[in-house]
Design goal:
There is one protein chain. This protein folds into two domains: 107 residues, Gcn5-related N-acetyltransferase (GNAT) (Aminopeptidase, 3-Layer(aba) Sandwich); 83 residues, Chorismate Mutase Domain, subunit A. Helices cover 49% and strands 18% of the residues. The protein has seven helices and seven strands; from the N terminus they run βααβββαβαββααα. It has a four-stranded antiparallel β-sheet with strand order 1-2-3-4, with helices on both faces. Strands 5-7-6 form a three-stranded antiparallel β-sheet, covered by helices on one side. Helix 1 packs across helix 2 and helix 6 crosses helix 7. The termini are far apart.
């Protein structure tokens, strides 16, 4: 990083300049990043409303004449690197690397971030600095509706970091299984009411469709493995529903 560039925490008065840099970098990054979906004034109000008691905004400023220029910033929550932007004129000078290393120092237990799949330059930058790609999405959950990638720096104890993430997933699976068995019980009860059959037959065609849909969401598992998993889920859900009937 150039010696004339310094890093400091932002105050509320700095946020208007942060908003302008954010807008300029986003515009210049098209098509690696999709265009923003909000009017500029809405973005300015959004950035200006950031609560600096719940996130840290670190500024990179250039110049030593008493009137430094903002050339980059990074935004950190306790577990996420929400943003890292460097002005076009200041890129490839080590400023982004300095901000990222600062984030690592501030969050030694690790952090995650989202990057658009199309932003291959940013993904390569993060990979060079030791971040790993954890998952990809179709983008339906982000405002731009563009595929994105979740990356993470696993901190000073990677095994603990990854295990904590697995624990989160396991809790989500547990919640999904509880909902699955509850809905299965309702369906089985309804089948008995309309058919007067004590033990309604399973719908093999529907189960194949379920496996195909789930396999699309988990391509690394493949349809055969997903089939075995879903067969167990459906069978155990039906057995649990029978016990409650």
């Amino acid at each position: 990083m150039p010696t004339e560039v310094s890093l400091r925490l932002a105050g509320q008065d700095d946020l208007p300049a942060v908003a302008e840099l954010y807008l300029a970098v986003r515009r210049a990054a098209v098509p690696l990043m999709p265009p923003g979906v909000h009017p500029d004034d809405d973005v300015r109000r959004w950035v200006g409303s950031w609560d600096l008691s719940t996130r840290d905004v670190w500024l990179a400023e250039s110049g030593t004449d008493g009137d430094p220029a903002l050339v980059g910033f990074a935004t950190l929550t306790p577990t996420w690197l929400e943003s890292l932007y460097v002005a076009g004129s200041a890129q490839r000078q080590g400023i982004g690397s300095a901000l990222l290393e600062l984030a690592k120092a501030q969050r030694p237990d690790g952090f995650a971030l989202w990057v658009f799949e199309s932003n291959v330059a940013a993904r390569a930058f993060y990979a060079r600095h030791g971040l790993v790609e954890l998952e990809r999405t179709d983008g339906l959950a982000n405002e731009e509706r563009r595929p994105d990638v979740r990356m993470a720096w696993p901190g000073t104890d990677p095994l603990a970091f990854y295990r904590a993430m697995i624990d989160e997933v396991d809790l989500t699976l547990g919640d999904a299984l509880a909902r699955r068995v509850a809905l299965t019980r309702v369906v089985q009860d309804h089948k008995r009411e309309v058919s007067a059959v004590a033990d309604p037959a399973r719908d093999a065609t529907r189960e194949r469709d379920i496996v195909a849909r789930v396999a699309e969401l988990a391509p690394e598992l493949g349809e055969e493995r997903v089939g075995r998993i879903m067969h167990a889920v459906i069978s155990e859900s039906i057995d649990a529903a029978r016990e409650r009937s």
